[in-house]
Design goal:
The complex is a heterodimer.
Chain A (H helix, E strand, L loop, with lengths): L18 H38 L15 H11 L10 H19 L16 H8 L1 H13 L3 H32 L4 H6 L28 H16 L11 H4 L9 H26 L10 H24 L3 H19 L13 H26 L7 H27 L1 H8 L5
Chain B lengths: L1 H27 L3 H21 L3 H25 L15 H22 L8 E5 L3 E8 L12 E3 L2 E10 L5 E11 L15 H10 L1 H4 L2 H4 L13 E9 L4 E14 L5 E7 L6 E5 L3 H9 L3 H21 L8
Parallel strand pairs in B: 3-9
Antiparallel strand pairs in B: 1-2, 2-4, 4-6, 5-7, 7-8, 7-9
């Protein structure tokens, strides 16, 4: 039998007649596409980040290259590629050269298990989330490697801070995800997404309603909402984003663990950071926001949503032009109108949205990426809103606030999930 | 399949070489930080070997516990230690040849133990049924090939493939036309989730309920025409039972064919096989089988792992201790 290399056998093509070789070729092709997608996505994200930062600070951001400065990320990438690769004398050369790859491999390996499309991900695992948590630990090792091998105290401090932070915040994240796993009863990312297709909060009316109300975040409010918030805070810390970016605090540590890196080697850390942002957003999407499930699983609901978003954007843009920033106005307007549209639309499941055709595939991909990019947008938004935490505040938040809260949450969700057993116990076997 | 096997062998030996090479680097490197990082290669290579052996869950657990937990702890301790890179390793004091011989002895005993005590099976649960005319090896596994966790014949909800390798004793007097799988109905699990203990009486009660699942065997008749042009050849039959409800199942196999009687005329015949180890259970999702396995037969092993973490903690504390000068 051919084992794990054929894990994705459902989509392996018949190219050479040798199953394992076919699988390897398909894996290579998919990885090639994924790596290029990560590179483009990271580039566009940097552009978005600079543009959003600019508008939040009443500037326009990059504006020189192409339409509204859109070409700036390509110029940045070209600059990084042709920059001189400097390796300082005091470094441990082998580990210094190796660490960018370890960091990038750790965050890239997560991508193969993400449920991008309905029932399709690059590799099918039935232990999806466990795999994600496991391979992302390579990032910590890579960061420690980079910090130690740089032979610089700034890099070492940054690496130690980063590792301490990531290891600490894995605890509330793990406990939170454990609580959600109690609900879903599976580690498979697609099965988790499937489990959020129907039902109302607290398990009412299992088959009638779908969409927004069936998502994990609405399963046992307020506990699942708290779980989502804890996860999101932890995700911010895991990706070293503001307000938890003490590992690369510019005012204290120059640039943290990648102080000594330049050119392409630096860009690997950079890519890895943005890749990680997507991964944690994708996990949050899958666990709490229904994965590729649409918020309104009916044709009329989708129409409401699209029209509402466009009208909201236009109105927000129009109002904001007189006072605030037009870009921010359009963003807020479309978001608000989309929410209103979702609330107005009946969230009843429509037969057309439960099939497995091309429309559902495209729609599922659209919703998955929309949710992920919304979460990434919030990350960027927070970065330009909140000041940086101190190290002691960060640890205080993690160990004294988030972890106990996550534990209480876990117990609460567990009790709610087993409520029938509890009822039977209280009533002496007569529900 | 030969080419596939060759590629898999190459993969296996590459991973094994990475594991052994990393281990040698851990032991021989003069720099303790480099040793710690070489451990990363060993742990990942071993995890990959688990993955090659279809044990996805074990591979993920290996990376999660060893890389994410123990290795980070070790590297942390090493880095927090003052001027650790100046410290010469204590390995120097051990005479090389003696250490080599000791390692060889340990390796030899390990190999002996592995070869002679472990039960190696190609599939997680193979039941060989034999009625002296045909040998039928029955297997069950999941259809997607990524059978990450299978502890004692626990299959996942989605689909279960039941296959039979039918080996016919070279004898022209017999022919088999059909392989009939029968899956008896699941024991219904009540809403409380409590498993009901199997009793022989209940098995009898299940028989009427098995009717609808018997129907799936009708599909196996489709392979009838391609079956056994000649005897003495192994044929594999597969059937996928999709969306089996959660529960415990039994399955049996029956061969239907022809046999020459004393006068040399073909008579239709049936061969049934004694039900030996043909149980499997379908569980919801992945978490429940893991929990059942960890809290059941593997409880002791699971708890012993914590001793390993304790050892890592003690080692880290030992490495991080302050050097007291002049004592």
């Amino acid at each position: 039998m051919t084992p794990t290399v054929l894990a994705a056998a459902s989509w392996t093509l018949d190219l050479t007649g040798i199953p394992v070789l076919d699988a390897f070729i398909c894996i290579f092709v998919v990885c090639f596409i994924l790596i290029n997608f990560i590179a483009v996505y990271a580039g566009v994200s940097t552009y978005a980040e600079r543009k959003i930062a600019g508008h939040m600070q009443a500037r326009v951001g990059p504006y020189r290259i192409w339409w509204h400065g859109f070409g700036v990320w390509i110029a940045d990438a070209l600059k990084l590629m042709i920059k001189e690769d400097i390796i300082a004398k005091n470094t441990d050369h082998l580990l210094f050269k190796l660490s960018p790859y370890v960091v990038f491999a750790g965050s890239f390996a997560c991508w193969v298990a993400l449920p991008f499309l309905p029932h399709w991900s690059p590799a099918s695992f039935n232990i999806g989330i466990l795999y994600l948590l496991a391979v992302s630990s390579a990032v910590v090792i890579g960061i420690l490697m980079a910090g130690w091998s740089s032979g610089s105290k700034w890099a070492l401090f940054g690496a130690m801070r980063s590792a301490a932070q990531i290891v600490s915040y894995e605890v509330p994240i793990g406990i939170t995800l454990l609580g959600m796993l109690l609900i879903y009863g599976t580690l498979d990312m697609h099965a988790i997404s499937d489990a959020q297709s129907k039902g109302l909060p607290f398990g009412f009316m299992d088959d009638k309603y779908g969409g927004l109300w069936s998502w994990g975040i609405n399963r046992y409010p307020p506990f699942t909402v708290i779980a989502f918030i804890i996860y999101y805070i932890g995700a911010l810390a895991e990706t070293n984003r503001t307000p938890f970016d003490i590992p690369e605090a510019e005012s204290e540590l120059v640039a943290g663990y990648h102080t000594e890196y330049s050119g392409m080697r630096f860009s690997f850390f950079f890519l890895s950071e943005y890749a990680n942002m997507f991964v944690v957003s994708a996990i949050a999407t899958t666990f709490f926001l229904g994965g590729w499930q649409p918020p309104v699983p009916s044709a009329t609901g989708t129409l409401y949503l699209v029209v509402g978003t466009l009208v909201g954007a236009a109105v927000g843009y129009g109002i904001a032009k007189r006072g605030f920033d037009a870009f921010v106005g359009a963003m807020l307007g479309s978001g608000f109108a989309a929410l209103v549209a979702v609330f107005i639309a009946q969230p009843a499941a429509d037969a057309a949205f439960t099939g497995t055709g091309l429309a559902q595939l495209v729609g599922g991909g659209f919703w998955f990426f929309s949710k992920c990019f919304t979460l990434i947008f919030v990350m960027i938004w927070l970065r330009w809103t909140l000041p940086r935490y101190r190290v002691d505040q960060l640890m205080d938040l993690c160990w004294k606030k988030l972890t106990p809260l996550a534990l209480i949450n876990l117990v609460a969700i567990g009790i709610l999930e087993t409520r029938q057993e509890w009822m039977r116990w209280f009533t002496g076997g007569h529900p | 399949m030969a080419a596939s096997d060759f590629i898999l062998n190459v993969v296996f030996y590459a991973l094994a070489a990475a594991a052994v090479g990393g281990a040698v680097a851990v032991a021989t490197s003069r720099n303790i930080v480099r040793s710690a990082f070489a451990l990363l290669a060993v742990l990942f290579a071993v995890a990959a070997l688990y993955a090659v052996m279809k044990a996805d869950f074990i591979a993920a657990a290996q990376v999660l516990i060893y890389v994410g937990g123990i290795l980070v702890l070790i590297i942390f301790a090493v880095m927090l230690t003052h001027r650790i890179t100046d410290v010469k390793l204590s390995n120097d004091s051990t005479p090389g040849p003696a250490a080599f011989c000791a390692c060889l002895c340990l390796l030899f005993s390990l190999v002996v133990v592995i070869l002679f005590t472990a039960k190696w099976r190609r599939d997680s649960d193979v039941a060989t049924l034999n009625n002296k005319v045909f040998e039928v090896a029955l297997r069950q596994y999941q259809s997607d090939g990524s059978t990450g966790i299978q502890f004692g014949g626990t299959a996942l909800e989605d689909s279960v493939v039941v296959s039979a390798d039918v080996l016919v004793v070279p004898d022209a007097s017999r022919s088999v036309d059909q392989v009939v799988f029968t899956v008896s109905a699941p024991e219904t699990r009540d809403a409380g989730g409590k498993d009901q203990k199997e009793t022989p009486e209940k098995e009898k009660e299940k028989e009427p309920a098995a009717k609808d699942l018997d129907d799936v065997s009708a599909k196996d008749v489709q392979v009838q025409s391609t079956f056994l042009p000649y005897a003495g050849r192994t044929q594999t039959y597969r059937h996928t039972f999709e969306k089996l409800p959660v529960g415990d199942y039994h399955w049996r196999v029956k061969l239907v064919g022809h046999e020459k009687d004393v006068k040399g005329e073909l008579q239709s015949a049936e061969w049934t096989f004694p039900a030996a180890k043909t149980d499997f259970s379908v569980r919801k999702g992945v978490t429940e089988p893991i929990a059942l396995a960890l809290a059941g037969p593997y409880l002791f092993a699971f708890e012993v792992v914590s001793v390993l973490l304790l050892a890592a903690l003690v080692g880290a504390a030992f490495l991080a201790r302050k050097e007291v000068k002049g004592v």
